[in-house]
Amino acid sequence: MLLVVVSHKGSSPGRQGFKMCVSEDNELFGSIGGGKTEFQLVEKSKKMLSENNFIPQLINQVHRNKDKDASGMICTGEQLVLLFPLNNKQLEIILEITNSENGSMHISEKGIEIHANTLTPYKYHFKNDMNDWLYQENLFKKPKIFVFGGGHVALATTKLLNALDFNITLFECRKGINTFEENTFVHHKQIIDYHQIKNILLDQTNGYVLIATHGYITDIVILKQLLSSKFKYIGMLGSRAKIKQTFNQLIKEGFSNLQLDKVDAPIGLPINSQTPTEIAVSIAAKLIAVKNQ
Q: Are residues 94 and 75 in the same domain?
């Protein structure tokens, strides 16, 4: 059973677009907000599956309300959840949605459809006219991030970014780095000459860059080639002293403060992080903020 929050009002636990699946053997994947409301719909899904009830249902859940159907949760608002049965005949369309580069997904009583290269005006949209309902959701490519430097921080950060559904490419200029060799969280990795970035990396208007190399000299080599690019975000790891030294050197070489303003440095939210994993959390949090702004 596919469960989708097709619309919500107020501070409901689930937001429009939240999804989860309940399998025939009671495995759960994803979430529609958790808590009592999710539990209730999981149990209903199990019951529908056991009874071979394959008719889609729309269920409105009310939170902290005097209504007899209220959930009793502290959060306020409503969420409308679609319970949509799936079977192996739909596997092909599901795989197409999973691998879609761009387009939109449409769910109705007729089934699930994908409209390749066609976006709706809103990321999510639901309409319900006289029981003729339609849920639409735009599908986008995974955000791409290019990470320079294969050290401990990059290893911890790419592990988090993988869980956050980024498409990750890792570059390193040194051979034999164990943290680079052991990194199984990235989708692509390559040993390159940092002086040749322009020949390897095309401008990515929606792409992200994380510079986490082993020294300010390699940072300078990379930044020189990226300061005129059109990446959505460029962040650099390092102490304030290292960053100041790097920027001063680039200004001496003729780069402007306006160009350097494109670089978020030091990258990460200021949470007094110490360990590579803590630093990774601060970096990932900043990237989420940029992605979702």
A: no
Host domain of residue 66: 1-86
Amino acid at 210: L
Q: What is the pLDDT of residue 16?
A: 92
What pLDDT sits at residue 68?
Answer: 47
Do residue 95 and residue 24 come from a single domain? Answer: no
The CATH number given to whatever domain includes residue 253 is 3.40.50.720
169 and 53 in one domain?
no
pLDDT band per the 50, 70, 90 thresholds, residue 71: very low
Kindly state the greatest CA–CA separation across the chain: 74
For residues 109 and 247, state if they share a domain: no
Contact in structure between 218 and 173 (CB atoms under 8 Å): yes
Q: What is the pTM of this model?
A: 0.70
Number of folded domains that form the chain: 3
- Dist CA 90 CA 2 (whole Å): 12
Beta strands in the chain (DSSP E): 2-9, 19-22, 28-31, 57-63, 77-84, 103-108, 111-116, 124-129, 132-139, 144-148, 167-172, 188-191, 208-211, 233-236, 263-264
